[in-house]
């Protein structure tokens, strides 16, 4: 009997305190990783990347069309007033084109219909900006175009989330 008193029970397992400590450590590590990855910023970066890509693709379509037509722009582009920002659209609209945009679109009728690039096969469809603060559609795409007096074209996004602005000029 005295021998049994001094023998230890060799039960296997973890104590409640050990389990709580491990769970607390895992929770702290998960919180640190979540904060470090910052998913909201990653989603904003992804939308900005899509806007950069769309603006570049559309400007490439404008320039390729110009080359294919012996230096002439599509009618809608060549008739745009120099220095005026136009909301890119796939329809002829008469109002609502001056929706909230980083680039100031002065008049509600300042839309430019670039559906001709789709019809001619330069782009599959006109890009629509990913919805961030604005709500964009095929009529109000969330992209704008400006033609300068010397003929350079700027395509830009009406909003950006983690960039100061998004525009491409050639």
Strand order of the largest sheet: 2-1-3-4-5
How many helix segments? 5
Measured on Cα atoms, how large is the radius of gyration?
A: 29 Å
Overall form = elongated
What is the H/E string?
A: HHHHEEHEEE
Please outline what is shown here.
The protein is α+β, with helices and mostly antiparallel strands and 170 residues long. The chain has helices at residues 2-6, 16-37, 39-68, 75-78, 115-119, and strands spanning 85-89, 111-113, 143-147, 153-157, 167-169.
Description:
- It is built from five helices and five strands; from the N terminus they run H-H-H-H-E-E-H-E-E-E.
- A five-stranded mixed β-sheet has the order 2-1-3-4-5.
- It has 170 residues and is an alpha+beta fold.
- The model has no long low-confidence stretch (mean pLDDT 88).
- A hairpin with a 5-residue loop joins strand 3 and strand 4.
SSE layout and pairing:
Blueprint: H1 2-6, H2 16-37, H3 39-68, H4 75-78, E1 85-89, E2 111-113, H5 115-119, E3 143-147, E4 153-157, E5 167-169
Parallel strand pairs: 1-2
Antiparallel strand pairs: 1-3, 3-4, 4-5
Main attributes of the structure:
elongated; 5 helices; alpha+beta; five-stranded mixed sheet; 170 residues; single chain
